[in-house]
Amino acid sequence: MIDGGDVLLGFVAAAIRVATPLVLAALGEAVVERGGVINLGVEGSMLAGALAAALGATWGGPWAGFAAGGAAGLAVAGVFAAVAIGARADQIITGTAVTLGAVGLTGAVYRATLGTAAAGLTIPTFGAGPLGQGAPTWLALLLAPLTWWLLFRTRFGLQLRAAGEGREEAEAMGVPVRRVRALAVLAGGMLAGWGGAALVLAQVGSFAERMTAGRGFIAIAIVVLGRWHPVGVLVAGLLFGAATALQFLFQAMGLAVPYQLFLMFPYVLTLLALARGVGGVRAPAELGRNA
Amino acid sequence: MPRLVRALALPALSLVVGLAALAAGLALAGYDAGAGLAALGRGAFGSTFAFTAGTLTRAIPLILIGLGFALALRAGALNVGAEGQFYAGAVAATAVGVALPALPGPAAAPAVLAAGALAGAAWIALPVVLRVRFGVLEAISTLLLNFVAEAFVSLMVTGPLQEAQRIYPQSDPIARGAWLPFLPGTRVHAGLVVALAMAVLLHVVFARTRWGFRLLVTGAGPRAAAVSGRIDTRRAVATALLGSGALAGLAGAAEVAGVSHALYPNLSPGYGFTGIAVALLAGGRPLAIVATGVLFGALDSGAAAMQREAGIPAVAVFVAEAVIILAVLIAGALARRDARAEAPEPA
User: Fold this and answer.
1) How far is CA A110 from the centre of its chain?
2) Do A100 and B325 touch (CB under 8 A)?
3) Domain that holds residue A110
4) What is chain B's Cα-based Rg?
5) pLDDT tens sequence across A189-223
6) Do residue A92 and residue B334 have CB atoms under 8 angstroms apart?
7) Over 70: is that where the pLDDT of B277 sits?
8) Considering the domain boundaries, does residue B347 fall inside one?
9) Which of A93, A112, A213 sits opposite B329 (nearest CB)?
10) Measuring CA to CA, which of A169, A235, B263, B272 is 20 to 30 A from B244?
11) pTM of the model as a whole
12) Which of chain B's residues have a Cβ under 8 Å away from the Cβ of A112?
């Protein structure tokens, strides 16, 4: 007989663990979208971050891996920034291409380097009980208020939001629109890379091809559900973590439901969130428009 | 003909840049790039068999999906969910093909293909509603449904559509009468004719029909649509997206009826995303999509050979495809900048 309390604590712990990579990536994307840019390359940044974390952790320990993950995510975002902001190309298509390239590159590099060797990678945990979570979780909790401060209490945040609400007006006021957007995209890429690193180091323990499985796209939906606000993003990310963790709970309760339904669940929830979220709050006016 | 030269120069240059990036990436990752590219060439063009059973056969879904992407793009919409619509089409085609063995010969294959096209349109219906009613970016909603489709296929081949022995995660073969035959003297199935017919059809739609004109005006922006008057842009976007989904669904059905003859997970090696590159490299022009479809069919077919012969993961070819898309985007952006510099702003 399974103790109900243990199951519930396990559920909470799993929800937070699963939410961490999503929250990290979504916080970054929230900053990007506040500037009027939508970056579908987040998925590619996460994937590159995941592989770099696995490689870095294998060679230099978990902290080196985590740093490498952020750097790889930033590098992938740099490609997006160069094409979508530098050359003013379509943001959606650029982001899709960047993700496609990251899938190919990580697949090739993974088989050339790690193969199936590396497994059981971990990063130190802090806290106890369901709050005994890996360092990335605590970083995400720290970054949520920090992102709020950046967006709403700094000159950079003001310039970024101005760029996101009206590019021409912002430019007329002397805001370097493309520079603040590019900086936001790079920062967002680093956070997405950390999200990928968290997936490897604090959740799965190894890298697998295409292991992010659309988490970058879910992060974009979380930004919408969280209404482009860091605190909202944190809450929405935890909600998604809980939706995914439900499958562990159901398994523990012995409910025989095909596992594929659980695989579908977060995506369907995201679609519903998109319809609801957009109905409630307005997106940044310049979102997705080419500068 | 400087115009023709310029039109061909961009795709050719993008292709060279893409292949160079692939070679550089392979060398950096420690592979023998020369051997890899040689295997890629052999797998694409090395023999009549390789060209028809490999390159042309893979070009069929790419042409159809590329046409679908171009159709939506014409109205300014982005369907990045062709992978999911492809799978929806494959599931429906399999369901019909398995269930109707008594169907008379000549009607079987068209019924299977029609089921696939309908399922593809049905799979994109929700993003269409979300876009038209709630203003949800179709690029995100169609993308998310790709993951639902993968899980859906997995559910089907372990559930309702699993083969009779109930051992393997795949379906029973569809009725023999629904198989698309090889074109005489080749190893490529009749889906190629369907793809070519669709390209011609779309060319005519774009060039000669009122619907094609409405799509163009809608894609040109709300101001153009208002100026032209009486253009229901929401309707134009909705019909373009539904047609786009139907073409991707048709691609899935043709793959089942012409190649796999049964439903498997991983039926598509990423056709839905490669199709975007196919359409972009052709500048969204239907007849040019036939050419770029064959080109990317060659890349895909070559990638499989690269994995077989040189031990290089086929997924690496995505790097070349991504670089080609980015090169086309950058070249297009530069061309727009030149055009702006040459022509003064209209008052």
Assistant:
1) 21
2) yes
3) 4-118+134-280
4) 21
5) 999 999 999 999 999 999 988 899 889 988 988 89
6) no
7) yes
8) no
9) A93
10) B263
11) 0.88
12) 29-31
